Amino acid sequence: MRKVAVLVSVVALWSWVLATSPASAQAPEGEMRWALYVTISPSWFDPGESGVAGLNSFWIGYALHDALVKPMPGNPRAASLAESWTVSVDRRVYEFKLREGLKFHNGDPFTAEDVKFTFLRYKAKVLREKVREVEIIDRHRVRFHLHQPWPDFMAYYGTLASGAGWIVPKNYVSRVGDEGFRKHPIGLGPYKFVSYTPGVELVLEAVESYWRKVPSVKRLVFKTVPDATTRMAMLRRGEVDVAYDLDAPNAVDVKRDPKLKLAFSGGIGTTYLDFLHGQWDPKSPWSDQRVRLAASLAIDRRSISEAETLGASIPTASIGPREFEFMLPLEPHPYEPAKAKQLLSQAGYPNGFDGGDLIPTPPYFDRGEMVAGYLGAIGIKLKVRTMERAPFLAARAAKQLRGLCICGTGRYGNAAVRLEETVITGGTYAYGGYPDLDDLYRQQDVETDVSKREALLHRIQRIVHDRVVIAPLFLYVWPSGIGPRVQEPGLLLINPYPWSAPYEEVRLKKP
Predict the structure, then answer these.
(1) CATH of the domain at 291
(2) pTM, 2 dp
(3) Which of 5, 114, 156, 344 has a 20 to 30 Å separation from 174 between CA atoms?
């Protein structure tokens, strides 16, 4: 009887192992298609460009690749390729224990060599400056040595603030080069590369051996469809299953169609009015805080939200979402055009002035027209100048835009990451800076006491608001259309990540 009991126990245990292993899960089935509102860039296939290329690159990153630590449902920094990590007492050393037995899509084993190689090829200046050495302890253990304690190491390395923790295969990249890697990317994610047709679509196929979970859908197709009306038509015809970022008229049509479902997502990207070079030019009207405040008071944020997103976008004065660590909730300036005119008169512009160009981030050109109309109503004459997305992004990064910009930031991480990018001297999109803000930022950058650091970051945000260094409009929340075949689109499973993810969780309805 004892032998029988042992045998039953062994059988039961083996049955449990089989039932919970990836191989036992139901095989992926079907094809799910997305209509994207911007052109897919090959740079998005390479984590070495992620963060530099923007948050959109993680549309592809969450499918093709995997990270040591990444935002996941219910956990903003979930252990993934790293089973665990520790921080030394002096906060100068981060050690990661890597998950064993994993292989890249081409069969290469995943080791600490890949982690070090990925970090050293990454282009983000801030990480490279803070990390003194990447030390390989053994095949599955790696240490990052910092020059000094830096409380934001995991904000950059363990979130979507950068792609430095999203691992590429050292041997493969060394053999084919960066250009070859972008033509045929190899990763560790739940989907592998099948094909890419520039300007048309990207096709990916499920990896059934993915360590976390066998994907439900066999094939993912991402289509480039810049026009919202075309995205809507494709959704209605069943050519796509998810149509991102619909305009208000098409969103209303989705609500009226019983076969379709309207979903709202976003809330991570802050749209703001950027005064660019004018703020730092003493001869420019924009160097006067009263003029910048007048511009902010002239804008009816709620009406723009209603016109663009059926009122879903959230007016704000904060640089980021409230879910982010150290974010100071700030109420937006009210819509007060009469007070705006008074401020302009006090600043010496009773009849207004010619403000030059207003450049909206593509493809949000209607937003530019609305803002130009509001500023024109108080006497600030602007000409809306539209640009294609790629030239706009290049000009913005090179700080070559002139006039005003309706820009935005979707940078992941926390309040410090957002501030560094937008308002601190030398930031990616900062056209100037204030010495006192720079000094406060340097203080918080090395402050390891959480409460003291929060106080410093709140102080910076308050000053930015009071000086109207930028004029935030709203947290952008947009409507998307979901087709009748979709059981789970994956929108906002990771909060605040606005698009479908993780892809192993998306599901189609059973036939």
Answers:
(1) 3.10.105.10
(2) 0.87
(3) 156
